Each structure stands twice: as C-alpha cells, then as structure tokens.
Amino acid sequence: MNPWYLFGLEDARRGERGLFAVTAASLAALAVVGLRNPRGLNETMNAAFEWVLTYFGWWFMLLGVVLLVFSAFVVFSRYGQIRIGGRDAEPEFGLLSWLAMVFTVGYSGSIIIWGVGEPISIVANPPPDPSPVAGAPIESLALAFMYVHEVFPGLAMWYPPFALAFGLILYTRGVEEYKFSAMLGVVLDEDSHRTLYWIVDLAALIAIVGGVAAAIGFSAQVFSALLGSVFGLPATAVTYALFALLGLVFLADVWLGLHKGIQNAARTTVVLMLVSFAFLFVVGPTLFTVDLGLDAAGVWLDNLFRLSLYTAPTADGNWAHGWTSFWWAWWAAWGLFVGSFVARVSKGRTIRETFVSLVFIPAGLLWVQHSIIGGWVLAPGYVEPATEALNSGGIPAAIATAVTITPYGSVLGVLFILVIAGYVLTSLDSAVYILSSITLGDENPNARNRAWWGVLLSLLGVMTLELPVFDAMQAFPTVLALPFTLFLLAIAYASYVAAREYYHGELDRERGEAFITNYDPGPSDGDDD
C-alpha cells in the first residue's frame, strides 16, 4: 500500500506532500515543546509577541483600514452584484443553515471568553492618560473597545477580503487548484514563480494554525476554570476527557462531511448560544445591562475612528497595540480560513449578499451578545470579584468567578461549556476542511487528511493547558500571522482585477446575447418571388 495513503496524500504532488509534512512537523514539534517545557515556550512566545507589537503593531492597524476601504469599494460598487460561482450558480444551502455556518465559524468562543476578558481587563488596567474619550465612564469605554474589536470595524476589515478573494477568483473566475497561492495567478505566472506560490501556501497554513490554536487554547483553559471552580471537578483531567469526547464527535463530523456534519453542528451551536444569552439576560443584572449597552454604544459610534486608530504614541508600553493590534492579527489569522470557508458555502449568492451575511447580520447579533455579557460582568456586585479573580488567575478565573456568583450559576456554567464546545467543534471542522483543501488543492478534500489536521490541532490546543499564563496564547495568532500579511495586499489587488475582468466579460456576453436576440436580417435576397 502507498504509505502516503494513510495521510490522504496518495494522489498529491511532491510540493503538496511537502506542505503537509513541513506544517505538520512544525505543529507537532511546537506541541511537544509546550508539553515538555511549557514555561520556556511561554517566555519565548511572550517575547515574540512584545517584539511584533512594538515594531509591527502599526502595520496591523494600517492594513486593517486599507482592507476595510477595499471591501467597501468592491461590495458597494457594480462588482457587488457578481454571483459567486457564476451567474448560473444556485445556492447550495438554505438561508438559515447558511447563516448558521457563517456565524459559528466566524465568531467562535471569543464571544464568551473575550466578551468577559477584554472589558474586565480594561476596567482593571485602563488606557493611559489622556483617555481616548474624555469623560466616558471606564465601563462604557471598555465595552466600546469590545464593540470596535469584535463588532465593527473588525468584522468588515478582515473577513470580507478573504471571502471576496476566494469567491471571485476561485469560484467565479475559475482556477484549477483550491489554494491561496492560486489567487496570485491573476497577477503572477505560476511557472515563473513556483517557489513563491509554495511559500504563500505555507505561510497561509501556518497563520491558520496560529489562529485556530489560540482559539482552542483559550477555550481549553476556560473549560478547566469552569469545571474546577463552578463544579469542583478535577479540572485538567476532565478537560482532557472533554477534548477526547470532542475529538470523537469531530471524527464523526469528518466522515459525515460538509452537508451533514458541519451544517448540523453549526445549527446546534447557534441554538445553544441563543438559549445561553437569553438565560444570562434574565438571571443577570438586566436593567444595568440595558443601560450600559446603550451608553457604551453611544461612546462607540460617536468615537468610532478615534477608538479604531488609537495608538497612545506618547505613553509608555504597548497598551493600545496590545488590544487593537492583537485583535487585528488574530482576525487576519482567523480570517484566512473563515473567508475561504464562507466563500465555499456561499456559492450561488452575490458578493453583496455574502457581505451582509458576514458583516451586517452578525454585527447586530454580536452587539446584543456583547452588551449582555459585558453588562453582566461589569455590573456592581460582579465587577469587583471578577476583577480580583482576573488579577490572581487571569481571564478564565474571572469568567468562572462571575458564573459562580450568578443566580443559577451551575446552569449557566453548563450552557457556557456546551456553547464553547460547539464553537470549538465547528471551528475545528471548518479549519481542517480548509487546511486540507489548501494542502491538496481540492475543494472537497478526503476525510483521512482532514482527520490528521484535526488531530494535530487538537494536540496543540490541549498542550496549551500546560502553559502557565493564559495571555501567552495571544502570541500564537499575532506572531504566526505576521508573515502572511505581506501577501494580503497582493491578494486584494488580484481580487479587484478578477472582479473587473469578470464584470466586463459578462457585460460583453450580455450585449452579444442581446444583439443576437434583436438581430433582424431583413428581407431575404434569395430566389423566392
């Protein structure tokens, strides 16, 4: 038997096998180092994180603005009416299933984890003087920053460019291989730049791994805190068991495929999420939540550009880059596979429809969710013990403490665990689908290769339980996504070229069809009398 068959690479070319081998070996080595020397890995990653923020924090901020302008131009120009997959393409999924998959793959457990973590951290450690919004209560300012980073403009900066690129170049214009590098074919010939193409795909795989590893790692540590503090269970052991169970469900999803596996997991997760936040809104500080959400929305909308571009250049340290640049780096890493996955499930829908499903609809839902969870943890009676727990045990401890002191906290704890587990499962499903697709250049990769990617990502996520500090995982997307950002502008330009060529080609085609339909040759010059 072909030894590559075990990895789903029996039909792969040499370069594709190399992509898998290099990325998988690096991923496995990182996991082993983390398990054997977690403190050393923690120190190394934190040092790299600080270096990237100090010297390249500005780059992530500037790139975000450029991509936002680019996305708005494409979506709201004449190119927004282009249908992904061509003008005759039909939607593959129903409206609700489509929206569920877009939402669950795009926003993960960060809604709970950072919905608590960022506002409470900003209250505990406010921005340096002078404040970016003079006179705003720190609670409202903290929640306003959360809106900037995970509602708008964050949503519109990072997901649409990837979705547009995949939708326009791979599905509408048409290429032979399902790879990130294939998008460069619009502006660069592959035969003359084969090495560059391989490097682009490698950088994309590494960036995706960084973003997904951080999300799984954050979730693993929150699982552990909730199981230990809320339910008094042996946290680490039960978390390992929970991940083993998720692994079995994940493998089942892999074999079921996109339509049955990922689609059903996304639907279930959305239902659990809606139930959880409705429950929290009722049992939590409801009136304070409404008041704070409205006040923070005013601070956010009135100071949108100020907060989005806040760098505190005269202050010591990296406070602003530690939040905004970190978020933009994570969005960049996460957006690689989210955008490509969204394009995959959006075939048959227009560029404008896809943008609405990816930005406008989620933005409204995310604003409500962050208002509920931010109002809960920042309310009097909650903010003091949560801040104390944050200072002693980090964000996971703050979440667990807030859950513990909430009425019916055990019910809320169970719901949070189920929601985060659902997000881990759908994110892992979607990520390995795209990782395998990029590796093999196949829109429908085989289950064996996807299973290997899932095992490797899960191993890396479980390893993060051994890291001594929760904040160390912030380094994964920030450091690993940096190399790929160099290619983002080239991909954006290639998307524009593809949209322009396709639009004018369709326009010429319509004119030709109209000419044929309306053509009147006049009286025949034949012999008939």
UniProtKB/TrEMBL annotation:
GO terms for cellular component: plasma membrane. Keywords: Cell membrane, Membrane, Transmembrane, Transmembrane helix, Transport. It is found in: Cell membrane. The keyword Membrane applies. The chain crosses the membrane at residues 18-35, 55-76, 96-117, 156-175, 196-218, 238-258, 270-290, 326-343, 355-379, 399-425, 451-470, 476-499. The keyword Transmembrane helix applies. InterPro entries: BCCT_transptr. This is BCCT transporter. It comes from Natronococcus jeotgali DSM 18795. The lineage of its organism: Archaea, Methanobacteriati, Methanobacteriota, Stenosarchaea group, Halobacteria.
